[in-house]
Amino acid sequence: MPSHSDTPAANAPIWQQRVAKANQQRHAASQWRSRRTLSSAQAVEVRLGEGNEQQTLLNFCSNDYLGLANQAGEDLASAAREWGLGSGASHLVCGHSSVHDELERALARYTGYPKALLFSTGFMANLGCINALAQRGDLVVQDKLNHASLIDGALLSRADFQRYRHLDYPQLQRRLQKRDADMALVVSDSIFSMDGDLADVAQLANLCEQQNAMLMIDDAHGLGILGEQGRGVRNHFGLTSQQLPLYIGTLGKALGGFGAFAAADEATIDYLVQFARPYIYTTALPPAVAAAMLANLERMHDDRLRQQLQAAIGYFRQQAKALGLQLMPSDSPIQPLMVGAEDDALAISKALEQDNIWVTAIRPPTVPEGSSRLRITLTAAHTQQHLDRLLQALDRHVPEEQRA
Ligand SMILES: *Cc1c(COP(=O)(O)O)cnc(C)c1O
Q1: 258 C-alpha vs ligand 1 centroid, how far in Å?
Q2: Are residues 300 and 231 in contact, defined by beta-carbon separation less than 8 angstroms?
Q3: Does domain 32-61+303-402 correspond to CATH entry 3.40.50.1970?
């Protein structure tokens, strides 16, 4: 029996009762999350399960937008022969190597900043930067749909934390105008991870300049996708690095690897090295991973990947519209189909899986109540044939009342 259905005895310790109750509530609300186990590398077609239970699925839920996740295996292997596995310590003790340095310089050049600093994950980069820069008495203002790591960074900082309605910049402006705090930090995703739409970062930069606030943008889904050669959201909007003074990029999405970085001016990066605790107190990324990331950064310069991706997005949106499917307004690789109720989103996701198509149903609390959706993601590696298979399956399984 799965553990969630076990009801602990009335005299069980309080933590056991709490755990059991929360698990039961999650189940009852159709919000239970579970992992699926891949038995093949990340790719457009993946194998799930083991032995006789294997199934090959056409994958429409990865963030591997340029299809680079499984291309750097040889780079990783040859770097590992030189560097081994572990970095041995944090960057400030003895874990910082020349490949980390080289990757930081390459990322700074690519994104157009004086300096970059590697973090082990994007979650830690966001926690570390917000917590280091915002302090008690300051104001942190964020878009309501920002990534969980940005929200948690603000909570951790103990600054006054306010949110504005998604993309509602007049509301943001009022919050900044009314503030008592001298120091204000405005934080937004570039491309929103569950909606696929894009913040108006030029407008945010203007507002921050007018209101004397610092702007931090998490470009997890924009790096490699937006701007010339995929240089990201700063380049896309033609902003200078002074107008967007703190840039966060991750290496686990379009770059197809693992890790993250902050990019800023030299003084800010030096400050983060001193004060960003998730930078200081954690083991440095394995050097071989940094070397493989350098190889993927080279691959990411190739505009053909972005052209293939754009072609896939254009084709999918056009065909979906013809079928009356109500896609959310998005030009990005994230093309969610809004469903509403958790059960309905789960049912469509399960039906697609019977047709060997994998699209995860995203439910609260990841998204607001009543906005469960199928988060379809497209990549440069999806061919028209793959997209047609998805479209035909959606046509079979999305009920008429969900269509335009
Ligand atoms: C994935 C993601 C992160 C976290 O990055 P990791 O490197 O996976 O920890 C941060 N912000 C956004 C918007 C993301 O989508």
Answers
A1: 10
A2: no
A3: no
